[in-house]
Amino acid sequence: MPEKPGKNREQLKEITDRIEAGIRDIFESGDMEKYRNYLRTMSRFHNYSLNNQALIHLQRPDATFVAGYNRWRDKFSRHVLRGEKGITIIAPTPYKKKIEQEKLDPDTKLPILDADGKAITEEKEIEIPMFRPVKVFDYAQTDGKPLPERVASPVANLTGNVENYGAFMEALRRSSPAPVEFKPLSAEMDGYFSPKSQSITLREGMSEVQTVSAAVHEIAHAKLHNYGLQQAAERKHKSRNTEEVEAESISFMVCAYFGIETGANSFGYVATWSKNAELPEFRASLDTISKTANGIITDVEKHFAEVCKERGIELPKDTEYELVTIPPSRADALTFAADYAAFLRRDLNVPDSADRPAAETVADRLLVCEGAELRKELEDFVKLADEIGIDDGSHGLLERFNGLFRQEWRAKEKPQPEVETEKPNVEDELPPPPELEQGYPMPDTGIGFSEMYQYGYTDGNAMLPLTKERAMELFMQDIPVFLLYGDNTEAMALDAEDISSHTGVFGVEREEWDAVRGVVTLSEQADTEKLFLENPQDAFLIYQIRRGGELDAYRFMNYDYLQSKGVAPERGGYDAIYTGGFMDYGNARTNLDMIYQRFNVDHPADFKGHSLSVSDIVALKQNGVVSCHYVDSIGFRELPNFLKPENYLKNAEMLLEDDYGMIDGIINNGPKQPTVADLEAQVKAGFSISLTELAAASHREQKKPSVLEKLREKTPEQAKNKTAPKRSAEREL
């Protein structure tokens, strides 16, 4: 729904006031660096209006390239990152309106009259200029396909000694309204523009950067202050200070756009000028500077391309990118393949003896050609299920299959000519692995120093190698994990996304691992069901059908299908896969939906089961009450008898078999106070604990510090070697 005109005017008035305040601040401060930074923003957005240049500078002075949300998506194949705040600018939104007006004689320009002497009218469409605030986003606020170099940066990209200097100076000559020549001049004079001879003279022997800067400065004078070519009525002489401020500002803008960093030069004029000029004069000069610099930049880019073509200078071409599909790991492929093989056995009557060959075959098919044939096969199963009107689990399988592949933009590799050279033995060039004591427990048995060294990271004395899965496990235990690179550098992972997106090797500092090894291990979990039942907080437990068990043939089947076969989902046919705490949203249905989403979109790294699917069971404990829910085709179905109440009470009684006695003892003695060991077991299982509760338990038992306290203890030597702060161990998990 369009905004009301009154509201739009209020917004524009607020924005205009903001622009004026920003320009006034730059003008009145007399701060040369502040003014230069503003000019840098103007140079990057030279083709924008003065108002929008000011708005971008005020909101995001480091912006490089902006576009609207839809333009990023449709034109550049990029998306705005979640949570990014847009930059407000003003966009023209003219609208057309039909009006009645007197018809004029084309010769006399007088109204044409009818037989009664009345003016004849005609309908005419006119365009009414309007503006409205819109949101744009900077390149740094987006992700996706890299921008072409010609869009992301200037065509010449010149720094220091000007690359292709001769071609660039020729482009400047062709852009100049007056001929450019070189002569010996005094050291105090870089150049001048002569209105009398209509020529620009530059000093011989200057550096390339200084010559370009001086040339643009004098071209600006020739364009703006060439009063000799103006009609007497049009002549409006500006002060010497104003002329120099405009020319030097234009020179700085143009050079900044092409990556040429210049000195302060004549910026001293700004401070002197601002003391005597008025704000409207300053604003008018800024508008002149913006428009003139834009014209020079446009002309130079056009002529530079022409000169390079004439002289056979080949400019760097844009890097070509392609969307590459990244297949899943072999382990993930085999997990999916096993489930798919079970599906095939059930639907196609493949014998049980073919289980492992079928899984291996499916995995191989999945990893080759992005599994195109396998995807088509699954789609056919889905189509058939829809036609028959059944839910055989094919929908869930296809959804899981599509989630196995991810895509990323990569630069296309240029074909390299084959050169037959004797290849050195890589093993001979690698440094020897560090000497470790016999039986040293490495943090990850799935990778060794040889793999890390061949990857390109060779500092084995300081860093121990990790796979992605193990890196995620340690990271979730607040142990600093590093992303290793093939050029022998590293960077600390700051969040889980860093680990997920890194395609190389990971590492943990040996010093860090020595401090925590043997204390925290996610893989050594206690009885999952017992942890769930004895957890005093709200918790969930995921059950999945036991492979090879009595219910294996009913994996991914909905509840109605089980009933039609006279089968009930009983505890004996399921494995307790994973337990953890959850945020209570007030009702079981919402809690279940959030758990389902988590274990399909971004499940924990230590989760070993398949994505939560039909036939799985989720047990919830809310306020001490346990309920079990079957994952159905649509929603969930409660199973009152899956965990028998008597079994739960028995487990609870066994847990309280200490000085407090059985359950009846609670009535007399109050609830059992957790021990430090109890709390440590909860931390290992991924549950959160209260530090106050931990301190109280430690005080009661007067024992050694807990696991979390050990993790927080670092010697000064250990602390000073960290390259980034450690994630807080006190954060509730």
Provide an overview of this structure.
The longest helix is centred in the middle third of the chain and has 32 residues, at 279-310. The chain is an alpha+beta fold. Helix 2 crosses helix 8, helix 8 crosses helix 9 and helix 11 packs antiparallel against helix 14 (394-403). It has 5 domains: 5-94 and 129-146, no CATH class; 165-310, no CATH class; 322-411, no CATH class; 426-516, no CATH class; 528-672, no CATH class. It is elongated and about 100 Å long. The relative contact order is 0.06. Strand 20 and strand 21 form a beta hairpin. The strands form 7 sheets. Strands 18-17-19-20-21 form a 5-stranded antiparallel beta sheet, sandwiched between helices. A 4-stranded antiparallel beta sheet has the order 13-16-14-15. A 3-stranded antiparallel beta sheet has the order 1-6-3. The model is unreliable at 153-160, 231-235, 353-357, 518-525, 646-671 and 703-733 (pLDDT under 50). The chain is built from 28 helices and 21 strands. The two termini are 44 Å apart. Helix content is 43%, strand content 15%.
